Amino acid sequence: MDFSVPASVESLLPEVRRFLEERVLPLERDFAARGFFEVEPQLRALREEVRAMGLLAPHVQKEHGGAGLSLVEFAHVAEVLGRSTLGHYVFNCQAPDAGNMELLALAGTPSQQERFLKPLVRGEVRSCFAMTEPDRPGSNPAWLSTTARRDGDAFVIDGHKWFTSSADGASFAIVMAVTNPEAESPYARASQLLVPTDTPGFRIVRNIPVMGEAGQGWASHAEVRLTGVRVPAENLLGGEGMGFVLAQERLGPGRIHHCMRWLGICARAFELMCQRVVSRELSPGKPLATRQMVQEWIADSRAEMDAARLMVLRTAWLIEKEGAAAARDEISTIKFYVANVLQRVLDRAIQAHGALGMTDDTPLAAFFRHERAARIYDGADEVHKASLARRILARYGAKVS
Amino acid sequence: MDFSVPASVESLLPEVRRFLEERVLPLERDFAARGFFEVEPQLRALREEVRAMGLLAPHVQKEHGGAGLSLVEFAHVAEVLGRSTLGHYVFNCQAPDAGNMELLALAGTPSQQERFLKPLVRGEVRSCFAMTEPDRPGSNPAWLSTTARRDGDAFVIDGHKWFTSSADGASFAIVMAVTNPEAESPYARASQLLVPTDTPGFRIVRNIPVMGEAGQGWASHAEVRLTGVRVPAENLLGGEGMGFVLAQERLGPGRIHHCMRWLGICARAFELMCQRVVSRELSPGKPLATRQMVQEWIADSRAEMDAARLMVLRTAWLIEKEGAAAARDEISTIKFYVANVLQRVLDRAIQAHGALGMTDDTPLAAFFRHERAARIYDGADEVHKASLARRILARYGAKVS
Amino acid sequence: MDFSVPASVESLLPEVRRFLEERVLPLERDFAARGFFEVEPQLRALREEVRAMGLLAPHVQKEHGGAGLSLVEFAHVAEVLGRSTLGHYVFNCQAPDAGNMELLALAGTPSQQERFLKPLVRGEVRSCFAMTEPDRPGSNPAWLSTTARRDGDAFVIDGHKWFTSSADGASFAIVMAVTNPEAESPYARASQLLVPTDTPGFRIVRNIPVMGEAGQGWASHAEVRLTGVRVPAENLLGGEGMGFVLAQERLGPGRIHHCMRWLGICARAFELMCQRVVSRELSPGKPLATRQMVQEWIADSRAEMDAARLMVLRTAWLIEKEGAAAARDEISTIKFYVANVLQRVLDRAIQAHGALGMTDDTPLAAFFRHERAARIYDGADEVHKASLARRILARYGAKVS
Amino acid sequence: MDFSVPASVESLLPEVRRFLEERVLPLERDFAARGFFEVEPQLRALREEVRAMGLLAPHVQKEHGGAGLSLVEFAHVAEVLGRSTLGHYVFNCQAPDAGNMELLALAGTPSQQERFLKPLVRGEVRSCFAMTEPDRPGSNPAWLSTTARRDGDAFVIDGHKWFTSSADGASFAIVMAVTNPEAESPYARASQLLVPTDTPGFRIVRNIPVMGEAGQGWASHAEVRLTGVRVPAENLLGGEGMGFVLAQERLGPGRIHHCMRWLGICARAFELMCQRVVSRELSPGKPLATRQMVQEWIADSRAEMDAARLMVLRTAWLIEKEGAAAARDEISTIKFYVANVLQRVLDRAIQAHGALGMTDDTPLAAFFRHERAARIYDGADEVHKASLARRILARYGAKVS
After folding, report:
1. Could you tell me if B220 and B261 lie in one domain?
2. Would you list which residues of chain B are within 8 Å, Cβ to Cβ, of chain D?
3. Domain CATH code at residue A376
4. Contact D356/C134, CB-based, under 8 Å?
5. How many domains does chain D have?
6. Residue-wise DSSP of D10-45
7. pTM above 0.95, yes or no
8. Binding-site residues on chain A for chain C (CB distance < 8 A)
9. Distance from CA of D252 to the nearest CA of A (A)
10. Which of A37, A44, B7, B94 is deepest in the core (most CB within 10 A)?
């Protein structure tokens, strides 16, 4: 057993942390107040600095133009980046592009990689992933209403999507659509298609107001209508009927990315909480830190964050060593476990800040409202708990559908 | 024992409910999207309808122009109104005006009542309450930095306040300031002063961005600077050094108002959750409602809401019967208990809505982010828990500071 | 609304409390150390005192020889009695006899009442209720393996029961058995039969060791085998196929009894906790009571106990006013809600006592281990939560089996 | 990073597991029903088998006669042994002897080791550790009332101890007593003394009834009076005034032992829960395992156990690598974190068993009641949380006493 930080990233982490604090954090307030498009030029400039550090697209293999970190190595970096809303973006490993890069690296044809992956890895364009539908539950990705009908050398897509994050300004979308409705297994009915967003019939209805903010650009979640959207058959990603399988593949390492990012948020919130309680006085000379109820928040948060972190790193290690299939239980577990730790730590940090915690004078309020989604996207808590339990119980002989 | 709704309001409640649903709810979306000032004319029109129903300022005594409901009666009405963000406003019993009306009715001189209370009760003006300070903890209202120095026939106020809710557009503020710094008891140092907001030196620095929204008008929380603000001595409310005592008086029935409003929010969220889970299908013919984890949310929410409701009504009854002093324990208890029920019910309702719960397509997301403050304002959970416990333990002989 | 203690019992309660503390509590340690049979003579003597107070079998109608308290009145008395493990026994309203008295009063023929009810109410005999079976879930009382076959003028019963509480030394059992296996509704298959325990074939296999104690007499839970047990047909209680309906009837007021008893336990544990924390010093002059984490236990316990108590009293009032059917939701709710409050309060009280809390030098350890069953018997938490939720959701149109 | 089981014990663990299940588990019921002394001969025989496996006293260095496992290696073995109440005893690494062996190995003089340590490691005698006092809080081990007065070449001890586990039948006690009351630091006042239990004045008052059981022999917790107990000065362990420091030393690895034992209990309870829910039918063909509320218990338990396990192993690794002082935060954290996971997992396992869970027909009920102490001994949750938080906050500059 060895719980050390891998030597390969040990010296890197303080450097990333310093860059993040000195160069990225100062942009946060502008980003929050003025929106994505206003700060995009500055973000682009920062990316050039990261490129010079050799760390742009850190999770992508070197052959595809990335920095080529292993999953465990990237996990450590992702935790540091997660401290800022902008960290992953500046390093070009932000959702949904990060997952799309992985998909294209895994399943793209050479020409698809040339056309779609390379500009993405270089940070020249953005992309989106159109799977979720307003009328169908995210917990059942095998049940979609969007269709892609074969018509000669093309597919014609019709459907209604939402929570297509970052569609606003993206150059292409990966769209999940039913191509084989007659396939016996519901998991073999959908395919993924590469759809340039300027294709006629692809229309962003709105950026959905989420927790009071419609956002813009990368920081938005679109409702999308696809009406007779025609793409050449060569835009099919990874084979007909492979949509569901690929979506699952996308989730494995993506889970590690999200969880480590959440732990970065936790680390930031924890620090803010500690700083607050040692400096805020209840009466002269008597800081909040003297209050045992507050001490309990500190202790519980520390324990839960440590626990969560070890579980995610162990899962990353296991995926690396034995593959995502062998780590299925662990991948489910960290999803719900870490998301709940995140919510509790944020809740305590806000409470420790009192009225200030409700304001946008700290990043806590934004984390609190937007990261509430962590317990919902990529499978709600309940979905993961039930599926984990059923897999375990099946080993005891349960026949649980 | 009798747990029935008082006969005096039994027939009233369905009427209020119907008015709320037919006339008030349709305004919510506009209010959320376009802001307070845009919908103010419509709100004013609705208030005329409420006036015609004889229910404007329901909690204010008839002699002062209100509808004269008892505290228990008003509690029932407040629960119904709480279902909408706009309910209390339309009935002119919204915070902070409701509390200010009570203060003025209780402690105002006839001329103060003529000048400040009457227009407030008639709904012609708005007011605010400037107590909280950015540099001092809300948990220690005896420790204020704002001062009001006697200067001849006037007081000159200097200080810095924030979370002065609804200051934007208010015609006057009630300002807590230290007038007697040398008083032995820290609880006898502050006074309350009636300050027209057009007094020179009274300046709104900004509407504080709270959970992503700075808001406007009634729906805002201001940071305020008072610099050499001069008001005549007759603007003193209730005697020098009485500031803290009056602030406490203000909290008693105010606690009932808040708690019943929160329970109205719970009721609305619970209904939305139930409607959602019976209609949202996980697969054809299999609604969310069939999932036991969801059923547990329904059952736990029902139980907690019932419990909370009974505690608040009992407290209202006790205040009515024996006065707020006799109900001190209960008043502390409902504050933290109900606020936590509110947070849990909202959290479950959002989870039941999945991605939709994160959007502003339902009122849940706004409730979730803004009502997080319920555990903070008017005394954070921890303050009430500690003070309740110390009072109880004192009866067992504890000498606990 | 009126939350006062009913005038009819207001003066009674201090008297009952004093009797309990002065006469009953001193017996507890002997009962715990030496067992039921050793202290039975003293318990019998105390019952004579209670009889003289006119309070024996307080919940039973006067026409049947009881004290004739209403459900709400009895609820208040039951709470006081619950402070001691022996309280209900001394007043002859202990489970399972209390429920059996209610059943016999409700559904017994005059001759059954003469033979079985009267001696029970007078406290001359004890009884038991044999429903639960080791091989069948308690959550599905319609699914029993015990049968009662009609044979001429008699029924012949065969089956296997356990958790037949107090069978050891009981003079008769009420046995649930399937008499009509062919009935269409599973709820119409079982009947209840009065079975004297000296009937051939009725055999107590063992007093089941529960949490380390097999117990004895009233304080025991038996495993029972019924082999060809023959009772005359006139021993049928309330009609063939009525077993399930009667069992449900038995649960309604029984729920109130249990819940108020649990609240009595809570009250005792709370007092012990308060006394402990004000007297136990962490260092000279610094009692446990100064610790905020401890204060939080006090505050949370107080809040939860108040909430639970109001819910139970409201339910009792509703049953009295509109019948048990109208209070079905409330009856489910209090079962799981109060049982969980009980467990939390006991857990905190033990923690506050440290090592002493683990010992039998206080009653807390016995309450902790034995009352763990509160979340299991008469329907586990999960059963009540699911059934409450399904009833609520059915009103929203859900078709939830 | 490497999360693998160390190669050095990988092959050992299945062997230990098999031995435990085949040889040790069958003894449990007898032990529970008939007591320690009755099964002692069989336990002694099993120890001979373990000795033959070369695994007796696995945690003790080879030079002192143990198996010489490293802390991380032993942690893995301890988890397996923890599955049975008797596991650690059979391998001669049970509390309190295990800690006493460590103390003697660390601080004993050669002649102390010869006389006290060797027979202990060989399993020929038992010992106890007399620190806790009924009148002083365990959270303040610097505040003791027991004294050891120097009298020529001897110490004369007077005091009152309790929870001196396993004193019944022990051949010697290590007694904490104040030798230097005038020392400036309260942490330098106490010493540890080796006291043969047959020394005049050493008296076991009683085996304290704990959760209904006084127990006997190794499985008991004694109240002890020391009256003029005279031991030669050479029985001083580790220097005058070193008592507190040594007690702390004893806790570090002891924490790992306890936590891994608790995780063994969790593993056993989890297995029993899984086996139960797949086999117990709610209705024909519909096992408990189909219920989502039950699935949530499985998923939450799995997650929490994994989290706890990683934290303990990481702590063991850190102690091994950098010493206990460097791992102080982690040692505090695992104490409260794992103890609470243990309690929750046991609670769920019992709930899943229904009435059966309350009986002694499974080991769950005994685990539930006796392991409640895990949150109390060796520092209650609250003590560890507060001290962890204060250490963390001190790094942020807090001056928190």
Report:
1. no
2. 291-293, 296
3. 1.20.140.10
4. yes
5. 3
6. HTHHHHHHHHIIIIIHHHHHHHHHH-HHHHHHHHHH
7. yes
8. 291-293, 296
9. 18
10. B94
